[in-house]
Design brief:
Layout lengths: L39 E5 L4 H12 L4 E6 L2 H14 L4 E6 L5 H14 L5 E4 L15 H33 L2 E6 L12 H21 L4 E6 L7 H6 L10
Parallel strand pairs: 1-2, 1-4, 2-3, 4-5, 5-6
Helix pairs in contact: 1-2, 3-4, 4-5
Family: Belongs to the short-chain dehydrogenases/reductases (SDR) family.
InterPro entries: NAD(P)-bd_dom_sf, SDR_fam
GO molecular function, one term: oxidoreductase activity, acting on the CH-OH group of donors, NAD or NADP as acceptor
Length: 246
């Protein structure tokens, strides 16, 4: 554990024990009990990194429909093609969208309600981190952007889709809201205040969603995906370098 500060949040497992890729217990192509036929899934931040991997795993899980949301249309095209290669029967809808736009999110929810008339799983994965720097050197609008994407985004998506989620839960028994959090939610970091605070906030948002709607069948969870070298992480987070896949 040499060199790993207790305040990073990594000390309790050690960098060498952090997962950085899909492993058999969570690989739908290897574990049939993970299959979820008939379900409709929406994923934000689906164009790359963790969001892309989530989308492909749902393809292996034989869901009925995957709704891909991200800012970059070309990335969505690539992920949609990869899904069809895995399972050509899956319906795929692509939406280039800014998750911080209330108008855009409302229009998305309206369109999905018309096209699918159900939503079983909402994955709020889109994320952002401002440049890692001490607070006195930070740029206010960029610092706040982390809260716009990491907190306001999941709030807007959940708010807009709750009517459809509740409607689906009445028929199926339960639906899921999955908010992708981070070990950063449990960190105190002198240069990453924007990221750690926004991820802590999304964990509390998740708890509030769950306590407010679980009796109606809406189950909300937040997930720490592990030490994954995504494009976002590799920009600033040197601590993740030992987690690179070989």
């Amino acid at each position: 554990m040499s060199g790993i500060s207790g305040e990073t949040g990594y000390a309790f497992v050690g960098l060498e024990n952090l997962h950085n890729d899909i492993y058999p217990a969570i690989a739908a192509q290897q574990t049939s009990s993970l299959h979820q036929p008939g379900k409709v899934v929406l994923i934000t931040g689906a164009g790359r990194g963790i969001g892309r991997a989530i989308a492909l795993q749902y393809a292996y899980a034989n869901v009925a429909s995957i709704i891909l949301c991200a800012r970059t249309a070309s990335q969505l095209d690539e992920v949609a093609s990869a899904i069809k290669t895995i399972n050509s029967d899956i319906r795929v809808n692509k939406y280039p969208i800014d998750v911080t736009s209330e108008t855009a999110v409302a229009a998305l929810a309206e369109d999905i309600a018309k096209k699918e008339d159900r939503l079983d799983i909402l994955v709020n994965n889109a994320g952002y981190s401002a440049r890692w720097t001490p607070i006195h050197l930070s740029e206010p609008s960029d610092w706040w952007r982390s809260f716009e994407v990491n907190l306001k985004g999941p709030y807007l998506l959940t708010r807009a889709f709750l009517p459809l989620l509740l409607k689906t839960a009445e028929k199926t028994g339960h639906v899921d809201v999955v908010n992708v959090a981070s070990i950063g939610a449990h960190q105190v970091n002198a240069v990453a205040s924007n990221y750690t605070m926004s991820k802590l906030a999304v964990c509390r948002l998740t708890e509030n969603i769950d306590v407010g709607y679980k009796d109606k069948g809406v189950i909300a969870v937040s997930v720490n995906p592990g030490g994954v070298e995504t494009e976002l992480a590799s920009q600033e987070i040197d601590i993740l370098k030992p987690c690179k896949s070989s």
